[in-house]
Amino acid sequence: MTDQIAIHAEKLTKHYGDVRALVDLGLDVRAGEIFGFLGPNGAGKTTTIRTMLDEIRPTSGRASILGLDSHDAAVEIRRHIGYVPGDLALYPNLTGRDTLTYFANLRGGVDWGYVEELTERLEADLSKKVGDLSSGNRQKVGLIQAFMNRPQVLIMDEPSSGLDPLMQRAFQTLMREVARAGTTVFLSSHTLSEVQRVADRVGIIRRGKLIALEAVASLRSKAIRKVNLTFDGPVEASVFEPLPGVRDVAVENHHVRLSFDGQMETLLKVITDRFHVLDISTEAADLEEIFLTYYRDDEVVV
Ligand code: ATP
Question: pLDDT tens digits for 217-226?
Answer without folding.
Answer: 877 766 678 8
